[in-house]
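Example record for the data management plan.
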Amino acid sequence: MIKLVVTDIDGTLLPEGTDRMPPRLYEIVRQLKERGILFAGASGRQYASMLHVFEPIAQDMIFIAENGSNVMCRGTNMATDRIAPELAKEVVSYIRSKKECYQALSTPEVMYVETDDPAYLSLMRNGYHNKMQVVPDLLPYCEATNKLCLYCGQGVEHLVGEVQEKFGKKLNVMVSGKIWIDFMNPWADKGAALATIQRQLHIKPEETMAFGDNFNDMGMLKNAGESYAMANAHPKLKEAAKHIAPPVEEQGVLQVIQERLLTP
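Corresponding structural encoding:
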């Protein structure tokens, strides 16, 4: 019996680049709740950004935010994986040396930046709907960070090799699209976050259904007895998944939930 459904957001539940939820998602999540099945969303997005997207059902679900480094439920922190302060300071200093780049430092409550560039601030606030504060110096906030981000508007491809060489053995260095590189603890990912939820709520992997479309969903699918890769997923993820769901454009996640869990 499935007791927990967890799904990636971008490319899985929603097409990339949109934050408009299918209206029937809200009713489906409420129906799951009536049947005693929990629903969780998993994303590289900040918790505040996810709240904006899921506002109508925010009290009925669990949030796996920032690629698993922050887990929240009904405003309560279930788990946060903080980076060692000295290592976080090393990353901050490195990104400062790249004059074409900006950075963001995440904590469970708020994201901090140390630039007043209006285009960057607009992207973060109005594009991603982050809860953000501009400060003169990020270093004092390195004691509490769970994720650091490097942003380069012209693309990060030219920096990937250098960043991996410098930090790849110390941190989970994750390219998150064309303009972002994320830094987290090596063991922090969506799969580890899902395992934490399962452990705290006494839910077994075989009682879990998970959906994903890309490499950063691999750990999540491995911790679910009923694992689904989207039809639009990376081939390696399809190989690892137990099932294939219809593509994101056809609302494949909702189709599977309706057919497998809500149809008598």
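Summary line stored alongside the record: The two ends are 14 Å apart (CA to CA).
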